[in-house]
Amino acid sequence: MLAIFEAFVKGLGEEITLDELIEKLAALRAKFGIDAALSGFEIDWETAIGLLNSEEAELTDEEKKRRDVLMAAFENIVDFAVAEEYQVMESLEDAHDGFGWGMDLEEGELNGMTEVFEKYNLNYMVTENGDIAHAMHIALGIYLLSGETMLTYRTQMDDRVRPWHMQYEGYSVPKAIFPEWLIPPIEHGCRCFLEEEAIYGRMNVKGAVFNIPKMPEWFNPTFKESVAFGGRIFSDEHPYFSVDDADVEKLNAMSKRILEGLLNA
Prior knowledge:
Helix content is 49%, strand content 5%. By secondary structure, it is mainly alpha-helical.
């Protein structure tokens, strides 16, 4: 990704527009994110693509549920990648007047732009891909469970656990009413997990009254949904999705092309 970016800035190779650069980088970024998702969901690329391209009538109920989780992940990761690369270029355009193909660079200017690029596509990407893999691993553990299965929120119980995560240690309700915002990860770098327990041998949960907490206002709304329930890994409240209204249609078109390319690869 860095080589493509530097070639653009230096004016090397075939000239492309800034929008074409965003789309090319986003396609690569999406592939890295999807690789993390497939790893977390313990499924290989060929199997996943075959499942996503299958006809509804060809699938079992279990396969349909698996496909729903995968499609939700693919769509969100592609949208996220496009929005991220858009933000990279917005940051560079704000900082460097005349940013574009074949810039007349002053000494050290490329290094400054490379630092911004790597902040998003190296430093942030490591954390984001970890969040993707963790979200999909949690989904793998619960997506086939019945709605009556009891889920219990667990932390790692060590000195790295954040206090606002620890306060929910041991919270337990049936899957059908478990708050999506409390399904890990609930924050970047979250290591929390869920334990499941079938209702055999314990009080029948049907008709029982459970305490369902509301998401605190100070919680990170980025993770208010859960891919395990067909939601998004990164919600629309992630800062990357704060884009200029004039660019929304263009970015949506990029996402559509990238997703189609991935599914038809």
